[in-house]
Design brief:
Shape: flat
Helix content: 40-55%
Radius of gyration: 26 Å
Order of helices and strands: HHHHHEEEEEH
Length: about 220
């Protein structure tokens, strides 16, 4: 009887340790594996852009593989060309003449019904993160639920007078584990600016559900 109880305890302890090791390994490997998967998928998606376009415009330039029917390509070549083209467009558009042409095209697209909504939405979204009009640089605590409950957000517009709301600001509050969020128009006395936390850390902390560690600036 004694040996049976001891054997059960050893077996239970061994199973617990194995489960701990498995979870620890999962914690280590899952972020690495998911990151590699996303990077590879993104790389392949960009790498396939040029061959697909060339095949649509000039089918004779890009052959298809006889084995699987996919387009023949040199891995990495399409990716490199796309990156260089994007950089070239950025460099050319910074010149005065081309910049004026881009501004005219921008005005036309923003005035075209139907296209305006798609174009302006994509443009504003990209500029909010990487353009000259970055919007997610001022992290704040915003009080929109209860008196002592605060959400982490970002001031995206300090002037919302067009909505007949003076002394209000627009605050974007991202959701955890998602790319969505909510925009609130709140009084300035309902927000607290975060001066000792960077915008990147605040975003990471919010999206991760409060799991990520914060480093003081």
């Amino acid at each position: 009887m004694f040996y049976q109880e001891k054997r059960k305890k050893i077996t239970k302890s061994l199973a617990t340790r194995c489960l701990q090791f498995f979870l620890q390994g999962l914690i280590v490997l899952a972020p690495i594996g998911i990151t590699i998967y996303v990077v590879v998928r993104l790389f392949n998606a960009v790498d396939n852009i040029l061959p697909n376009i060339l095949h649509q415009l000039m089918p004779s330039l890009v052959n298809t593989s006889s084995s699987d029917g996919n387009l023949e390509r040199f891995p990495g070549l399409g990716f490199a060309i796309v990156i260089v083209l994007v950089m070239l467009v950025g460099w050319v558009s910074s010149s005065f003449v081309v910049g004026r042409l881009v501004a005219v095209l921008d005005t036309v697209l923003e005035s075209t019904p139907g296209i305006k909504f798609i174009y302006s939405s994509v443009k504003d979204f990209l500029e909010a993160f990487a353009g000259n009009k970055k919007k997610f640089e001022q992290p704040v605590l915003v009080n929109v639920d209860a008196s002592n409950v605060w959400r982490i957000g970002f001031i995206t517009n300090a002037d919302v007078a067009l909505f007949e709301l003076n002394e209000h600001v627009a605050v974007y509050v991202p959701h955890s584990y998602a790319i969505s969020g909510i925009t609130y128009l709140v009084p300035t006395d309902k927000i607290k600016k975060l001066t000792n936390v960077s915008a990147a850390d605040a975003m990471k902390f919010t999206v991760s559900g409060g799991v990520s560690e914060l480093s003081e600036q």
